[in-house]
Amino acid sequence: MKVEIDHKSGFCFGVVNAIKKAEETLDQGGKLYCLGDIVHNGMEVKRLEAIGLVTIDRETFFTLKNCQVLLRAHGEPPETYEYARANNIELVDATCPVVLKLQQRVKKAFREMEQKDGQIIIFGKKGHAEVTGLNGQTNNQSIIVEDEDDLQKINPNKPAYLFSQTTKSLDQFHDLAGKIGQKSTGKLVVKDTICRQVANRVPRMKEFATQHDILIFVGGKKSSNAKFLFDVCKKENPNSYFISSAEELNQEWFEGKESAGICGATSTPKWLMENVAEQIRAY
């Protein structure tokens, strides 16, 4: 059976940068904490924890002093930096440049909206680390819109800026912007802030999914990007399966199949996809 790994799948540059910074810092010795999972992939988190990375939650972070803490690609709100300065915490800041730029744009827009009694609207997943960081730029006064039900929180008579979490669907964002625009009487400024490293994978995934009898999507259960991209694949090829490791493969899936495609999310390491390919070839 022909087994092919999608060469365009795997870590985006923001994740690559965060992991590189973690490995370089750990090589120097000493303890390194990471605020939240460095990437939404359990297997990669375990690999880094095995070489000394200690994953902590936000509650634990706000009890620390005199240590090193890695900030992952998702970004953090201002309060994280303020606490670090006050408690002698050295931050290894691996915030993705795309996210950092977006934070600055949201902060600037918030200042403008404060003067005009306006609103900042963020299309994103509630509780997601990136959204928490973006909301922090507005003193947590943004309106977070996850789906259509949240549109009622928006005052259509007030001016507004609309931004998006970088990893959301481009089509969903434009659809949402249209719906908000239809109801708005105040000035609405729409800012498409979706990362093209993510958005451009959609047409590639559609093409790749149709080239194989069976598609194996490798991703972390916590990854929003993985769930989104898997759904794209499943629509194109109903014979698609979502797994997090080679152990989840089922040999029966491959009976009578001539070709298998393996792809993954922006949070899926290449080594994990290669492990899956090896297991399939062994059948």
Which structural class best describes the helix and strand composition? alpha/beta
Bin the strand percentage: 15-25%
Number of strands: 12
**Element order, helices and strands?**
EHEHEHEHEHEHEEHEHHEHEEH
Helix content: 40-55%
Give the integer mean of the pLDDT values: 95
Q: End-to-end distance, in Å?
A: 9 Å
Radius of gyration: 21 Å
What gross morphology would you assign? flat
What does this entry look like structurally?
- This protein has 283 residues and is of the alpha/beta class.
- The protein is 41% helix and 19% strand.
- It is built from 11 helices and 12 strands.
- The strands form 3 sheets. A 4-stranded parallel β-sheet has the order 1-12-10-11, with helices on both faces. A 4-stranded parallel β-sheet has the order 3-2-4-5, sandwiched between helices. Strands 7-6-8-9 form a 4-stranded parallel β-sheet, sandwiched between helices.
- Helix 2 links the parallel strand 2 (32-35) and strand 3 (53-56).
- The longest helix is centred in the middle third of the chain and has 19 residues, at 97-115.
- The radius of gyration is 21 Å and the shape is flat.
- The relative contact order is 0.16.
- The model has no long low-confidence stretch (mean pLDDT 95).
Task: Summarize the model shown.
The chain has helices at 13-27, 42-50, 58-61, 78-86, 97-115, 129-136, 170-183, 196-199, 201-209, 224-236, 270-282, and strands at 2-5, 32-35, 53-56, 67-71, 89-93, 119-123, 143-145, 160-164, 188-190, 214-218, 240-243, 259-264. The longest helix has 19 residues, at 97-115.
